[in-house]
Amino acid sequence: MSSRLAICPGSFDPITYGHLDIIERSAKVFDHVIVAVFHNESKSPLFSIEERMDLISEATKHLHNVSVDSHGGLLMDYAKKKKANALVRGLRAISDFEYELQITSMNRKLYEEIETFYIMANNKYSFLSSSVVKEVAKFNANVSDLVPEAVEKALKEKFNLN
User: Fold this and answer.
1) Positions of the site: Transition state stabilizer (predicted)?
2) How many Å separate Cα 138 from the centre of its chain?
3) Integer CA distances (angstroms), 130 to 5, 138, 153, in order
4) Catalytic status, residue 105
5) CB–CB of 34/67 below 8 Å?
6) Contact call for residues 155 and 130 (beta carbons, < 8 A)
């Protein structure tokens, strides 16, 4: 039987408990999950790719079948290179679905062999996004229930809140 390899792609700027929930649930289903950090041209990241990878590695260190990587090109080129069977995407609200449908259709055109699996966000994280976390963190709001401890510390350092 071949290994079931999934890629969980995103910008993860920074990783939140919502992301971590999707990653942990994926790790229960797939033999191996690669959390792949991509640069989104439409966003200005707060953290470098290396910083994001370090934060994800710290947050997922308890998951022995999860690794962290990055890629600068097309997700489907990366998926082919890694011989991935699946993509895992989180859905928070119905508004996410239209965007995800468009992306999934294009991905399928570029690489027919890949399947996309959507995992509904846990209700307690359905409002959560990296953008919201960054917005409240820069005003020194408590984000300890939104992000792992290492991320909270990194946010305070980025916004000079120590």
Assistant:
1) 19
2) 21
3) 25, 12, 15
4) no
5) yes
6) no
pTM given for the model: 0.94
Report the SS3 class of residue 23.
helix
The owner of tokens 């792609």 is: 9
Catalogue all structural domains in the chain, each as residue range(s) with its CATH number. 5-126 (3.40.50.620)
Find the Cα–Cα–Cα–Cα dihedral 78, 82, 83, 88, rounded to 10°: -70
Residue of 19, 32, 52, 134 with catalytic role: 19
The tens digit of pLDDT for each residue in 12-69 reads 999 999 999 999 999 999 999 999 999 877 778 999 999 999 999 999 999 999 999 9
Over residues 64-122, the pLDDT tens digits come to: 999 999 999 999 999 999 999 999 999 988 778 888 999 999 999 999 999 999 999 99
Annotated binding site: 11-12, 19, 43, 75, 89-92, 100, 125-131
- How many residues are listed for the chain in this entry? 162
